Amino acid sequence: MTKQLINRLRQRWSGIEPRVDNKKQAVTESGEAGVTRRAVLQSLGLAGSAAAVASVLPRIVGAQGEMEGHEVTMGPHQMGPMVMPMAVGEVDHEFNGFNPSDVVRDFDYGTVSVLSNGQTLREWTLTAEDKEIEIVPGIRFPAWTYNGRIPGPTLRATEGDRLRIRFRNHSSMPHTVHFHGVHPFEMDGVPDAGPGSIQPGQSFTYEFDAEPFGCHLYHCHVFPLSRHIAKGMYGAFIVDPKEGRPKADHELMMMMNGFDIDFDNENDFYAVNSIPFHYQLNPIDIKVGELVRVYLINILEYDQINSFHLHANFFNYYPTGTSLQPTEFTDTIAQMQAQRGILEFRYKYPGMFMFHAHKTEFAELGWNGNFRVSP
After folding, report:
1. Per-residue pLDDT tens for 193-217?
2. What pairing do the DSSP bridges indicate for beta strands 66-67 and 111-114?
3. Is 78 contained in some domain?
4. CA 172 → CA 54, 144, 300, 362, distances in Å?
5. Among 2, 128, 183, 267, whose Cα sits 20 to 30 Å from the Cα of 155?
């Protein structure tokens, strides 16, 4: 029902999303505090004026540039004609404690030492925390996080390294860390393996060797699994081949995700690295001819499939990153949840080039960005 209301509102008023009187409001599962999109829309019905709706909901500017004859104020980063909907204003990155412009390039190699057998040891600490995250201006989501951010830290190692991850549960719910890769049963991070679910206040150290090389991920595996993933318990896990890959001018981690802000098991916003429209408002800067390598991971819950489309260019695609030879040269790929791969490309021409989900609903609700390519 919520989606139908939103779609009908979008048809009439160019797509407006929830907000309350320009104040920061938290969304809660219980509905006892804060404001949900469902409650706001149901209280409005479809009889309110565009002005009334705009006074209580955050705006997504439509491509037309007008709403029912009303002038629309463009976002501060607007450059040229509006070609896709976008948020007006930005979230409070300081409040969130992370910025997707940093997350996209932030690879955590851990604390490095050498074991007595000569093997490289990499150590990290992951802490589960309950934390509010501002998803779009005016809407705060009660998330479950690793190290206070969504996605969690991008852990990076080399094939054959010994990995030691100390997990501390400082949240109010039991959690685990399940790594995609090869490891002993006791280290699988599921409720019936090793220590099982890690209860609030408890900790456990996961330890195993990094294999196979590729683009992987980690996430909580406590049931209901869909809720633990949908609320933010995931991150990227990259294992480089021993011989390495060709040097890239830019390496970027993009985790495709979404948020169900009214807890009806349907996504309301879509994004790469959690904040809808971020890379549309804050384009990723590259130069003509530079090699760009993207570690692309789909962790989207509730929708069956996600996709990535690159404008005015093609890329080599390495599924799961477990081969040094690409399997496809294309401009669009699809991934089920937990599928991932590596994209490599160079731009031939300068300009502002879009990348987004090739699913209109996802793109219009936040999964859209730009590469700003300079000469």
Report:
1. 999 999 999 999 999 999 999 999 9
2. unpaired
3. no
4. 36, 9, 23, 31
5. 267
CA contacts within 13 A on the Cβ side of 361 = 12
Supply the range of the domain harboring residue 7.
Answer: 2-73
Number of domains in the chain: 3
Angstrom distance (rounded) from CA 138 to CA 349: 37
Distance CA 110, CA 125 (A): 9
| 323 in any annotated domain | yes
Is 45 within the bounds of a domain?
Answer: yes
Nearest CA to 87 out of 68, 100, 69, 74 is that of 74
pLDDT (0 to 100) of residue 41? 37
Q: Report helix, strand or coil for 236.
A: strand
How high is the pLDDT of residue 309?
Answer: 98
Query: Does some domain include residue 278?
Result: yes
Q: How many CB atoms lie within 10 A of CB 295?
A: 26
List own/partner pairs for 333-337 with CB under 8 A and 24 or more apart.
333/296, 333/307, 333/308, 334/305, 334/306, 334/307, 335/256, 335/296, 335/297, 335/298, 335/305, 335/306, 335/307, 335/308, 336/298, 336/304, 336/305, 337/298, 337/299, 337/300, 337/301, 337/306
- CB distance 259 to 302 below 8 Å: no
Return the CATH number at 315. Answer: 2.60.40.420
Q: Are 141 and 18 in contact (CB under 8 A)?
A: no
The pTM (predicted TM-score) of the whole model is 0.84
207 and 314: one domain?
no
Whole-number Å distance between alpha carbons of 217 and 151: 10
- Residues β-bridged to residue 368: 356
Do 266 and 149 fall within a single domain? Answer: no
| Residues 218, 98 within the same domain | yes
Pair 205, 339 in one domain: no
Query: In the chain, which residues have pLDDT < 50?
Result: 1-2, 5, 9-59, 63-81
Q: Do residue 42 and residue 108 come from a single domain?
A: no
> Is 97 buried (19+), middle (13-18) or exposed (0-12) by CB count in 10 A?
middle
Provide the pLDDT for residue 85. 73
**Dihedral, 314, 315, 316, 321 alpha carbons, nearest 10:** -150
How much is the mean pLDDT over the chain? 85
